[in-house]
Amino acid sequence: MVTTQRNCFRDACLIFCAALLHVSVAVAGVAVSLDRPSVDLNESFLLKIVVDSNIDMEPDFTVLDENFYRGQVSQLSNTSIINGQIRRSRTWSIALMAKSTGTQEIPAISIGNETSEPIPIVVNEPTNAPPGEADVFVTSEIDQTDAYVQAQILYRIKVYRAVATRQPALREPTITGVEALVELAGDERTYETVLKGKAYSVVERVLAIFPQESGEIAISPAKFEARILRNGRITGRKVFESGSHTINVLPIPAPPADFPNAAWLPARDVQLSEEWSREPSELEAGEPITRHVTISVLGQIETQIPAIEPPVIDGMNVYADKPELTRRIEAEGIRGIRKDQYALIGVRGGTVEIPELEVPWWNIEAGEWRVARLPARTLRIDAPAEAAVVPPGVPPAASADEADDPQSLSAADGFWIRVSQLLAAAWLLTVLSWWWSSRDRKRETKEPLPPPIYKQQAKFVKAARKAAAAGDKTGVRDAIIAWGRLQWPGNAPRNIGDFASRVTSPLADELQALSAVSYSNAAGEWNGKALGKALRSISVLVADEKATEQQPLPPLMPPGT
Question: What is the pLDDT of residue 525?
């Protein structure tokens, strides 16, 4: 009988563990993204595949072969601790190049039982051409030469390199003229392109410029400085420049006749939406409900979106809360998002009307005023029920006969006296128990546990950043190597160059620069400030050797790096 029970218990545990394993595989979502939505035919782009758990399965990349050339694949395993919870994810990055122009589709990619959603990418005819046979050159462009006050202007810088470079530095341009706000429109991108039969590695950076007054903006050339590696020799530092630009900033036009007090909001697109904390079809007077109103503006940062005034509703009290401001990066620049929320409480039963919400905005492409709208909504408020409710813990009122009967009153009083005595005794026992447990007694001394590895690593990162700011190369090397011993206890890095080969850019580039100047007299060429900035994030690189054996694309860095 005991053996049968043990077998049943074991089988139940196995079934439970199998169910947990099935659930963990089922909830591991697969997300794919592109570094940019539009490319030229001869340009490579980066496809990222992210799984929200650290699994051992690999993506099926063969579905890409019909319309794309596959290049190098890299992997990253990330572990983060947020509010005491450990989160793990795994990311694959693969370089692709389209085989034909037009709108192509990245097909669904499978990892185990999970499949991603297909996403489109626009492939254009090649447009850029190098000046002559230049190995390194810089280009810059703006999306409009005439803009409005506070409207977004996208400024794009591209650095083309057909040879290996050392100690590269991209200097952003100087913007003069009228006052302007400058924001970084997304992360820096790196990809490959082929121009006139020559392979180039391209670094692209996009800035969003918001002029604050009418007049003229002058943008100086962007500069790229680097030492060139040719035939095993490194040249002196060279400077490459892009072209300059001038932008005419137009004044704010008059508001529309229907909205004489309209706030100025220049944009490419404006969307309004609403959400409710629950279904508002059934409400009761005195019962609160929350309404979230979101305005999404393409071509504006979130702080420039005008506030939406709370609606005035007859029959309801409205209480505004603090707005939530966020942003996201799209192909056409920054999309600012402002979410306002209001608590609505009906003061009486009946029907109430929430008025239509209208937000006028200026369409910078069409050059005209437009209005974004949320339709009006009718709510039904039910009057509260007026049934008498006896508060908990209060005995019901005695009847007239009981009130006149002294014996019944005496019995009731005796019952409550006994209850009070029992409660007092319980309280006294609680106090005695607390006193007994809090008496001084010998406690066993315990050895303190060592701090977790991530805290030890954080100490070395802080020391490395401090040493970098002070220009202390030895201090940086010691702290970085100590960090590496904790990260790879069985295969610790031997030097800074070995450490740099195991992490991603920009930290890898800065460590290579430090390694180079450590064995020369060119101490002034090391940028400790840039290294300290790169040390804010350390991403460990796991190279996928199998996926790079057959690689039709040129390497992401030119030969000789």
Answer: 61
Q: From CA 266, how far away is CA 297, in angstroms rounded?
A: 9
Question: What are the CA-CA distances from residue 37 to residues 102, 200, 263, 306, 501 (Å)?
Answer: 12, 20, 32, 29, 30
| pLDDT over 70 percentage in the chain | 78
* pLDDT tens by residue, 160-171: 999 888 888 888
The pair of three-digit structure tokens given for residue 151, joined into one six-digit string? 């409207």
Bridge partners, residue 57, by sequence:
none
Burial of 47 (0-12, 13-18, 19+ CB in 10 A): buried
Q: What are phi and psi of 501, to 5 degrees?
A: -70, -10
Condensed to tens digits (0 to 9), the pLDDT of residues 232-273 reads: 788 778 888 899 999 999 999 999 999 999 999 999 999 999
Residues 466 and 513 in one domain: yes
Phi, psi of 282 (to 5 degrees): -125, 105
Separation CA 463–CA 483 (nearest Å): 10
Q: pLDDT per residue over 285-307, tens digit each?
A: 888 889 999 999 999 999 999 98
Domain identity same for 299 and 321: yes
Contact between residue 513 and residue 527 where contact means Cβ atoms under 8 Å apart: yes
Q: Is the domain of 157 the same as that of 105?
A: no
- Asked if residue 207 has pLDDT above 90, the reply is yes
Amino acid at 378: T
From CA 539, how far away is CA 270, in angstroms rounded? 37
User: CA 107, CA 121: separation in Å to the nearest integer?
Assistant: 11
* Structure tokens given for 47: 């496809």
Give the pair of three-digit tokens for residue 544.
């996928």
Query: E strand or H helix at 136, and its extent?
Result: strand 136-142
d(CA 32, CA 92): 10
Q: What are the φ and ψ backbone dihedral angles of 478, each rounded to 5 degrees?
A: -60, -45
Task: Please tell me whether the peptide bond between 506 and the residue prior to it is cis, using omega within 30 degrees of 0.
Answer: yes
Extract the tokens encoding 251. Answer: 């004044």
Task: Provide Rg for the chain, Cα atoms.
Answer: 34
Given the DSSP bridges, would you call strands 85-98 and 68-82 parallel, antiparallel or unpaired? antiparallel
Domain coverage including residue 504? 455-548
Which of 194, 222, 183, 231 has its CA nearest to residue 336? 183
* pLDDT at position 28 over 50: no
282 and 376 assigned to the same domain: yes
Residue 101: give its domain's CATH number: 2.60.40
Short-list 256, 181, 255, CA closest to 213: 181
pLDDT tens digits for range 437-456:
666 554 444 556 667 776 77
Q: How far is CA 83 from CA 105, 148, 425, in A?
A: 39, 44, 42
CB 319 within 8 A of CB 342: yes
Q: Do 171 and 274 share a domain, yes or no?
A: no
Closest to 346 (Cα-Cα) out of 382, 292, 386? 382
Does residue 146 belong to any structural domain of this protein? yes
